[in-house]
TrEMBL record:
The keyword Protein biosynthesis applies. Keywords: Initiation factor, Protein biosynthesis. The keyword Manganese does not apply. It comes from the Archaea. Seems to be required for maximal rate of protein biosynthesis. Enhances ribosome dissociation into subunits and stabilizes the binding of the initiator Met-tRNA(I) to 40 S ribosomal subunits. One of its GO terms (molecular function) is translation initiation factor activity. This is Translation initiation factor 1A. Gene3D superfamilies: Nucleic acid-binding proteins. Belongs to the eIF-1A family.
Length: 94
């Protein structure tokens, strides 16, 4: 296969995770998320990501909803713009 399609194998959500788009940055380590399951949730950026990965409005992320409070979720992963475009092209997200 000589042609390079540029497709990467991207991290996909586990059973308890969903795709989400950051709609608002609430300061500190909290963001507002619109999740692929139709819910709007308050997202928490964990300490392991807080200073290494900058999360902005419009970013596509993987969120893990809390099982004891469904209106909240942890942000587990952030996609680059190129990776998000690939997910859209493959039909994983709107």
């Amino acid at each position: 296969m000589s042609e390079n399609t540029g497709r990467k194998n991207l991290r996909m959500p586990n059973d308890d995770e969903v795709f989400a788009v950051v709609t608002e940055h609430n300061g500190g380590n909290h963001v507002q998320l619109r999740c692929a399951d139709g819910e709007d949730r308050m997202g928490r950026i964990p300490g392991r990501m807080k200073y290494r990965v900058w999360i902005n409005e419009g970013d596509v992320v993987i969120a893990e909803p809390w099982d004891w409070q469904d209106e909240k979720a942890n942000v587990e992963w952030r996609y680059t713009d190129e990776d998000a475009d690939q997910l859209r092209a493959e039909g994983h997200i709107d």
